[in-house]
Amino acid sequence: MLSKFKSILIVLVFIFTQFTTAQETPNPVKYTAHNKGKFYIYWGGNRDSYSKSDIHFKGDDYDFTINNVSAEDHPVGWHINYINPTMMTIPQTNFRLGYFINDHYNISVGVDHMKYIMVQTQTVNISGTYPSSYVGNQINNGQVNLTDETFLTFEHTDGLNYINSEISRVDDFSKYFGITNTDKIQINLTEGVGAGVLYPKTNAKVLGKERHDDFHVSGYGVAAKVGLNLTFFKHYFIQGELKAGYINMPDIRTTALTNDTASQHFTFLQRVISFGGIFNL
């Protein structure tokens, strides 16, 4: 009888041990718990605001500056052109490819395809030298009326291309929203800084001369950003960003004559919505 009791006790202890061990086995590590070694890519659109700027135009027979010039972007709204390979340069777009060097920091390269259009319906101060034929018509008392487009049109519409690299930090804020399974949905805060070159295709008509309208490395830019990232099912995300920066372009091509140039510098504020994926190779 005693031996039977011992046998039953041994069996019960064995079963209890196996059950306890199974209960203590930790949950598998979530895919979203670590970022090191992951790549990401995104594509999206932007809206832009620009500070006023002084624009200096120079050529063989003129050298003038217009002051406090207003400019705006050129949105097309939600449009099929964002995903049409033959029409992607028409809307204002953002592309970025990045790599996480550790769980929090990533490095990336990308293109912010913005559009910059000088507001035509404005009168601004002008100084310097210019053909006398415009005096009394477009130019009066040190001011030029740009409305009829005969004196000047000026835009970077294909576009104000900011080709840049960035370093960014990402932090998981899911727990502050009560989210425990980040492999289904994850909320991240991201911040970053970057720098790059400006490669615009400037469309300008200066004093009626033939326009240049071709891509040209014109200067540099720096920027800082903050954004909110929503990642779904481990691999797919929507990201919203606010990016503020400074652009300096001392060498803008304006006409078919190589001696005709322009220069300007200004600040910008960019609002970005993008869609992307994150993955391990």
Would you mind describing this structure in some detail?
With 281 residues, the protein is mainly beta. The protein has one helix at 2-24; strands spanning 38-50, 53-59, 62-69, 71-72, 93-100, 105-118, 123-129, 139-140, 143-145, 152-172, 185-198, 202-206, 219-232, 236-253, 261-280. The longest helix has 23 residues, at 2-24. The relative contact order is 0.19.
List how many beta strands DSSP finds: 15
Beta-strand content: over 45%
- Taken from the alpha-carbon principal axes, the silhouette is elongated
> Radius of gyration, rounded?
29 Å
Secondary-structure element series: HEEEEEEEEEEEEEEE
**Helix proportion range:** under 10%
The averaged pLDDT comes out at 88
Mind describing the biggest β-sheet? 8 strands, antiparallel, barrel
Helix/strand-derived category reads mainly beta
How far is the first residue's CA from the last residue's CA?
Answer: 63 Å
Q: In terms of per-residue confidence, which ranges show pLDDT below 50 for 5 or more consecutive residues?
A: 15-25
Total helical segments: 1
Spatial arrangement of strands, main beta sheet: 1-5-6-10-11-13-14-15
Structure summary:
The chain is mainly β. 8% of the residues lie in helices and 56% in strands. The radius of gyration is 29 Å and the shape is elongated.
